[in-house]
Amino acid sequence: MRRTTATALVAAALIGGGAVWILEASLVMSGRAAIVPPLTLGPALAVLAGALLLIAWPVRQAARGKRRIDDRHATGVLGLAKASALVGALLLGAALGALAFFASRAVVAGDAVLALALVAGGALLQLVAGLVAEHWCVLPPDDEDDARARGAEPTPSAG
Questions:
Q1: Among 20, 53, 115, 129, which is disulfide-ready with 49 (CB 3.0 to 4.6 Å)?
Q2: Helix axes 41-63, 110-136, angle to 10 degrees
Q3: Distance from C-alpha of 44 to C-alpha of 115, rounded to nearest angstrom
Q4: What pTM does this model have?
Q5: Which residue has the higher pLDDT, 20 or 75?
Q6: How far is CA 47 from the centre of its chain?
Q7: 85-107 b/e with 16+ CB inside 10 Å = b?
Q8: Which of 46, 56, 63, 62 has the alpha carbon at shortest distance from 139?
Q9: How far, in Å, CA of 159 to CA of 157, rounded?
């Protein structure tokens, strides 16, 4: 699996921000109320970020040779880390897009700005936790990998 690229994260954030801006504008122009997330969404994302780091810690220890874990568990944690980074970027973009939409209005409810700021903070924590957990899931290169990178034949192991 390849590492999550900055391009993918920026694209997710731009897609989230643009989609939310269009959705909020469409709702307001049609006379409906804008969507405001609950105040608990930001802290919930922060708790999920912490949980991701907790389940990724044993994978980090295994990558350093201090512990043994199942390969499927490590792969699952890596997949969750990648998904968390992308979802964090998407939600961060969505929250910032909604904040930008509300900033362009003449009258803004303070509760909406507070809720969106909390969501942006929680989404940022989710994004960072996903990237950290993904970094923790990287194994150090083998001797064979080093030899392939140099273009040489790996030395056969004795035994």
A1: 129
A2: 10
A3: 12
A4: 0.82
A5: 20
A6: 13
A7: bbbbbbbbbbbbbbbebbeeeee
A8: 63
A9: 6
d(CA 31, CA 52): 40
Which tokens in the block code for residue 4?
């999550």
Q: How many CB atoms are located within 10 Å of the residue 116 CB?
A: 24
Which residue type sits at 74? A
CA-CA distance, 87 to 81, in Å (whole number)?
A: 10
Whole-number Cα distances in Å, 67 to 50, 88, 130:
21, 29, 22
Residue 4 near residue 87, CB atoms below 8 Å: no
Contact 120, 95 (CB under 8 A): yes
Q: What are the start-end ranges of the H helices in the chain?
A: 6-29, 41-63, 71-103, 110-136, 143-150
Amino acid present at 16? G
